[in-house]
Amino acid sequence: LVRGDAEGSQQSGKPNTVQLTTHCLRPGNGYPLRKLVAGERDREEAARREAEDRATEARMAEVIVEVEALARAGNFDEALRTLGCLMTEHPNSPSLASCMDKVRRREWAVKTSMAEQALRSARRNRRDPKAAVALLEPLDLACVPDALARQIYGCWIQACHRLGTDDAVIY
User: Fold this and answer.
1) How far apart are alpha carbons 164 and 114 in whole angstroms?
2) What whole-number distance in Å separates Cα of residue 126 and Cα of residue 90?
3) Are the beta carbons of 77 and 106 closer than 8 angstroms?
4) 3-class DSSP state for residue 24?
5) How far apart, in whole angstroms, are the C-alpha atoms of residue 100 and residue 95?
């Protein structure tokens, strides 16, 4: 604002108007135009990053809900695969790490429970080794406690020997 022009218009009796000249907006003439433009760019960039962060958080929340639904349905492999893809993009996300731990614990609990039930049923069917083998064969012993896996394997070997199958693979 040119102060002298405003004061001059009051003295001359003309209406009180303030004139803004382009002279003071030119770089190097006292007004930091570059700073204004840089500040505006910084604000726009911060707003864009904030919008991206909100979109990422919303996407992660949707994926977590989907993964929890998959885990409740018993599709642990698919749930872990989905989480794994998102964990590669956001490795330091505590919500994703927490969800991953929940799914793994649930998988461990479900598989352990199924293995214990199958072992109990196979032991009850000692007189019917075919039924015992049929109960124990489909089990996934990947995340089952070692002691339980050894008991299941021992029961399976005994059932195979009762069947007369001497070529059962022993690891």
Assistant:
1) 27
2) 51
3) no
4) helix
5) 9
Q: The tokens 């015992």 sit on which residue?
A: 132
Tokens, residue 128: 């019917």
Structure tokens given for 113: 């429970």
User: What tokens does 88 get?
Assistant: 């590669």
CA-based nearest residue to 100, from 86, 114, 115 = 86
Cα–Cα distance between 83 and 103 in angstroms, integer? Answer: 10
Q: Tens digit of pLDDT per residue, the chain (171 long)?
A: 444 444 544 555 555 544 554 545 555 554 577 777 888 888 999 999 999 989 988 988 999 999 999 999 989 999 999 998 888 888 888 989 999 999 999 999 999 999 999 999 999 988 899 999 999 988 988 889 999 999 999 999 888 888 887 666 655
Q: Where are the alpha helices (DSSP H) in 74-145?
A: 76-89, 94-124, 129-136
